[in-house]
Input
Amino acid sequence: MDPNTDHDFASFTVSYPPDAASGRADLEATFGGRLLWISDAHCGLFTFDTETLKWYGHAFTDVTDLMTGAQSPNAVRVPAEVSGSVAIGQPAPASTGDCQE
Output
């Protein structure tokens, strides 16, 4: 957990966004240190849950439902997670087609 220590990327899990090959993802906002709003280039804005490693739509009700545990919104289809060692050695997977344009 020490940010000043080198970490081997191979030990990380890569949780691809819906259009992993889009070439750009921007962090737009954070919620409770757990949820991230990430803009996936031309594919749209998504909510990423750092605890479950799942991707959701960007409706604020999705964020509220996830934070309160009231109900779980439907997750967005994304490419399968892989280890950092696998991800670094191959091209990004194709889009799942679940863009939020």
